[in-house]
């Protein structure tokens, strides 16, 4: 399954549209005013599916992920040199990025979960997500949102 993640250019808060392979809206993400990033994920019918909240005043960006109001885990940027890495506390997934922080892979002990590629020469942050299993789409989207927000928090 492929998803295209596009940040809206003219928005007071973080706002994203997520499209499926047929260029149809799949999810909508709205930023909410708070200390740190707080992003709510809605389906195309306007039902809230999940949310990520950044822990304020953290040395490295850390986000808690919620699906249907229940905490499902956290994602935190690790202190590394050259290659960005994020620690997840849900599933057995790992997130590794390339040196330029444009491409990421999410893997588990049982196999590949997702590849993420940042599109260059776009007016806003745009990512292509290639997700192996559709059932993982929401959690994968939360990971990409957290990575993008972490980059923003660190001034990148």
From TrEMBL:
Which InterPro entries does the annotation name?
LOR (IPR007612), LOR_sf (IPR038595), Tubby-like_C (IPR025659)
Q: What family name appears in the similarity comment?
A: Belongs to the LOR family.
Specify the protein name.
Uncharacterized protein YxjI
Q: What is the lineage of its organism?
A: Bacteria, Bacillati, Bacillota, Erysipelotrichia, Erysipelotrichales
């Amino acid at each position: 399954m492929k998803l295209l993640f596009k940040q809206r250019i003219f928005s007071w808060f973080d706002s994203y549209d997520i499209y499926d392979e047929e260029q149809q809206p799949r999810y909508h993400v709205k930023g909410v005013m708070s200390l740190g990033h707080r992003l709510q994920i809605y389906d195309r019918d306007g039902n809230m599916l999940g949310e990520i909240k950044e822990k304020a005043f953290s040395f490295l960006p850390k986000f808690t992920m919620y699906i249907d109001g229940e905490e499902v885990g956290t994602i935190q940027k690790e202190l590394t040199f050259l290659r960005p890495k994020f620690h997840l506390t849900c599933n057995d997934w790992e997130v590794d990025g390339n040196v330029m922080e444009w491409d990421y892979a999410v893997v588990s002990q049982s196999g590949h979960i997702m590849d993420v590629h940042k599109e260059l020469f776009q007016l806003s942050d745009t990512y292509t997500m290639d997700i192996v299993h559709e059932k993982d789409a929401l959690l994968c989207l939360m990971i990409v949102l957290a990575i993008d927000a972490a980059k923003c928090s660190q001034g990148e």
